[in-house]
Amino acid sequence: MSDLNLTTLTPWLEAHVPGHTGPIEAQKITGGQSNPTYRLSTPQGPLILRRKPPGVLLKSAHAVDREFRVQKALADSDVPVPKMHALCEDDAVIGSAFYVMEAIEGRTFDSPWLPGLTPNERSTMIDSMNRVLTAIHEVDLEATGLTDYGPTGNYYARQLDRWTKQYHATQTEDLPDMEALITWLGENMPPDDGQRRLVHGDYRLDNLIFAPDGPRVIAVLDWELSTIGHPYADLAAVIMQWSMPATEQGRGLAGIDRAALGLWSDDHFIDTYCQRRNLPGIDRFEFYLGFCYFRMAAILQGVKKRALDGNAADPERGLQLGAYVPQFARQGLEATTR
């Protein structure tokens, strides 16, 4: 079951997605906390629909039109993405903007320790994850028409300002660690080194689809936070996620014997990334890591607020994730001394 209005969606789909007709069945995909996602079943095969959530939203949040644009632009690049079928910006159809894309059949993993696989399979899959991250950061902005996909100027200054405002707009309790982290980031920002690249904004294992029978990444999902910015934010986000608890909610590798399982160390992932991009190394990585903790804390605070307000895609899970805000703030401060 789903909350989609299939009576109005069906004629729109038939008019805008060639080769697909009704009757349509829809199933909401649970687990996500950004734009609600649905699997559509049509007589010709499955499709995926992503929409803006209902309710009052923060300015610039849940921009499905941007998700659609960037994935459509990447269709012929080295970055694997689903085929984009159609975008609808008419709220009258189902109550909010949405887009329809190809349903990619493959394997997804919520747990970064990749249970059930061999050490060699795990290592090869992390290598593919690293390669695709490099491909994102090497996208030719002119060839893909994405030169205007984000503003110019210092990416971190822009992001710090944006997420600080959104954090304070959704704040539900006082967190001194978060305020201290915001202050530290503002006072320790590296000078702009001129790297202006496509960034995913939420690059992690559970936003990737792997081939059904191999270690290759065949699709990168959830481009809601993508923009033109600084690539080290994506890289540091991977390292940040691995530092979290190895639980269903934490989805990290804390306490895991990575070497025994064939999982890469932080340094191996960073070094391989630098080799692929012909970089000598990364100075002041602690800033980029602290920034990622800050941004994730701000994002999860918004998830928590939407859950409390009844607007979250999955309210129960939204509250569970929101409980991690103090931990991200604390670990962000700790990362600044890494």
TrEMBL record:
Gene3D superfamilies attached to this UniProt entry: 3.90.1200.10, Phosphorylase Kinase, domain 1 (3.30.200.20)
Q: Which residues form the signal peptide?
A: none
Fetch the InterPro entries from UniProt: ACAD10-like (IPR052898), ACAD10_11_N (IPR041726), Aminoglycoside_PTrfase (IPR002575), Kinase-like_dom_sf (IPR011009)
Q: Which domain of life is it from?
A: Bacteria
Q: Name the UniProt key words of this record, in alphabetical order.
A: Transferase
The Aminoglycoside phosphotransferase domain covers which part of the protein?
26-257
Which molecular function GO terms apply here?
Answer: transferase activity
State the Pfam families in the record. APH (PF01636)
Q: Which PANTHER family match?
A: AMINOGLYCOSIDE PHOSPHOTRANSFERASE DOMAIN-CONTAINING PROTEIN, HYDROLASE, PUTATIVE (AFU_ORTHOLOGUE AFUA_1G12880)-RELATED
Instruction: Report the protein name in the record.
Output: Phosphotransferase family protein
Upper taxonomic lineage? Bacteria, Pseudomonadati, Pseudomonadota, Alphaproteobacteria, Rhodobacterales
